[in-house]
Design brief:
It contains twelve helices and nine strands. The N and C termini lie far apart (about 60 Å). The chain has two domains: about 200 residues, Rossmann fold (3-Layer(aba) Sandwich), CATH 3.40.50.150; about 70 residues, rRNA adenine dimethylase, C-terminal domain (Helicase, Ruva Protein, domain 3), CATH 1.10.8. The protein is an alpha/beta fold and about 280 residues long. The protein binds S-adenosylmethionine (SAM).
């Protein structure tokens, strides 16, 4: 039976109502499934966290390759389905919760002795960016993140300075990880079809970021301020952000110290320039 037929049969059997609000687009393409599993490079030594297992299509394959699989699914109506579709696997823990409310560090501790886990998911598109930012910025013990995202989000993750796609997400991804586009995925690989194209992206997290910065959290506050007011000059964007506590004069001085034009916009600075600026402002 094809994956599409299996998926339709499960939906019918359980009279399952697909929830658009949860971004439910089930993967039904065998080839894409194999690409995700291969890109995630999972072995029996790995503990894997899957966000949003849906009806368990990816999960079964992940459990077959991994030492242990933890699935976090928000939709309670999917839990009995998962318990049945995944019943042959004894190495799965299913958690019915919102991934943004789950303590991932605690899961790593509980299921992998605090050692790095691998994250794999066909992400719900309505919260892709918060999930990725949370996983990266909390500096959790994560070795890699292999995820299906909206094609535009994959492009934003890999964007270079200066373009319209470049922003806080690009900088976070590039500071914390090495990103690789695995494949593009057309709409017809899902049931129901999303009205956007998708892509699988693999992020290998650095043990040591490519640039050094005294306070990464403050640097990302600076970056957010720069992109919150993209149309403003960097000096104005920084000095307008109350949480930073930087005056216009200080902002101007910092930008001049870096040898940059006083009318420059934040969107042309790369990660090493942001890190130097951050160290100038927040060295104490
Ligand atoms: N993994 C399945 C597949 O590939 O067919 C389903 C992927 S579907 C795009 C996204 C899944 O994430 C759905 O099962 C949805 O219910 C779940 N989900 C949505 N928001 C969530 C959240 N905040 N926390 C955990 N799971 C969530």
């Amino acid at each position: 039976m094809t994956l599409a037929k299996k998926t339709k049969a499960i939906i019918e059997k359980y009279d399952f109502r697909i929830q658009k609000r949860y971004g439910q687009n089930f993967l039904v393409d065998e080839g894409v499934l194999e690409r995700i599993i291969a890109a995630a490079e999972i072995s029996k030594a790995d503990t894997v966290l899957e966000i949003g297992p849906g009806i368990g299509t990816l999960s079964g394959n992940l459990a077959g390759n991994a030492g242990h699989l933890i699935c976090v699914e928000i939709d309670k109506n999917l839990i009995p389905i998962l318990e049945e579709t995944l019943s042959e696997h004894e190495n799965i823990t299913i958690i019915n919760d919102d991934i943004l409310k789950v303590d991932v560090a605690k899961l790593c501790e509980e299921y992998n002795g605090g050692q790095p886990i691998k994250v794999v998911a066909n992400l719900p598109y309505y919260i892709t960016t918060p999930i990725i930012m949370e996983l990266l910025e909390k500096r959790l013990p994560i070795a890699s993140i292999t995820v299906m995202v909206q094609k535009e989000v994959a492009e934003r993750m890999q964007a270079a300075p200066g373009g319209k796609d470049y922003g806080a997400l690009s900088l976070a991804v590039q500071y914390y990880s090495e990103a690789r586009l695995v494949c593009r995925v057309p709409e017809n690989c899902f049931i129901p079809r999303p009205n956007v194209d998708s892509a699988v992206i693999s992020l290998k997290l650095y043990e040591k970021p490519p640039v050094e910065v005294i306070n990464p959290d403050r640097m990302f506050e600076l970056i957010r301020a720069a992109f919150n007011q993209r149309r403003k000059t960097l000096v104005n964007a920084i000095s307008n952000a109350v949480n930073l506590g930087i005056s216009k004069e200080q902002a101007l001085e910092g930008i001049k110290t870096l040898g940059l034009d006083e009318n420059i916009r934040g969107e042309v600075l790369d990660i090493s320039q942001f890190s130097r600026l951050s160290d100038l402002f927040f060295s104490k």
